[in-house]
Write a structure and sequence with these properties.
Elements lengths: L2 E7 L29 E2 L8 E7 L2 H8 L7 E8 L4 H9 L2 E2 L2 E2 L4 E5 L19 E8 L6 H8 L4 E9 L2 E2 L8 E5 L2
Parallel strand pairs: 3-9
Antiparallel strand pairs: 1-3, 1-11, 2-3, 4-8, 4-9, 5-6, 7-8, 9-10
């Protein structure tokens, strides 16, 4: 039976098990997970936090990571500035990036979520407000959410992937993981 692990990846951790950078390697998945034979299904940038799925099943890994299957990925996004309806509507229609038009996103402004503190903390500017969005996409381009919010004038300050498909971070603290049945 396939193994599926849900990991709450902390900020500044690579979504891989090794780091070839010398002389000072960065933190990797091997600093948190000692389960042989599993691999990330997709990736999450070093400066992003949240849900990373890992499995030992190649077909499951491809199904989770491949944009053709359109698994929804939901992010909690702290942005610099105040989102107006025009910016949200632009995200809902799709945003033109340098690598083409994105698919439409589901997006809504939300109250600040009850999340763990980030280490290091997000840098704030007293003169610029920040707000939170819940944004769901069904593709996975490189740094897509950050590029989308920047394209509508709302640079991302903090990015937390909350869910992929039906899997989410409920009850999983940063740097910890749990194994769930693969379906």
């Amino acid at each position: 039976m396939a193994r599926l692990i849900l990991f709450n990846k902390p900020y500044d951790v690579l979504s891989q098990f090794t780091d070839s950078r010398s002389p000072s390697p960065r933190r990797t998945l091997s600093d948190f997970i000692a389960v042989p034979g599993i691999y990330p299904a997709g990736r999450l940038d070093r400066d992003s936090e949240g849900l990373l799925l890992l499995t030992d099943d190649g077909r499951l890994q491809a199904r989770i990571a491949d944009p053709r299957f359109k698994l929804p990925k939901t992010y909690l996004v702290q942005v610099e500035g105040a989102p107006d309806e025009a910016a949200l509507e632009q995200l809902r229609r799709g945003v033109l990036l340098n690598d083409g038009m994105t698919r439409p996103a589901q997006v809504e402004a939300i109250t600040p979520p009850d999340l763990w503190p980030r280490d290091p903390p997000v840098r704030f500017r007293k003169s610029v407000p920040d707000h939170w969005l819940r944004l769901t996409i069904r593709e996975g381009r490189n740094r897509q959410v950050r590029r989308m919010t920047a394209a509508v004038g709302l640079p991302t300050l903090r990015l937390v992937r909350w869910s992929v498909g039906d899997w989410n971070l409920d009850g999983i603290a940063p740097g910890t993981w749990c194994e769930v049945p693969a379906r």
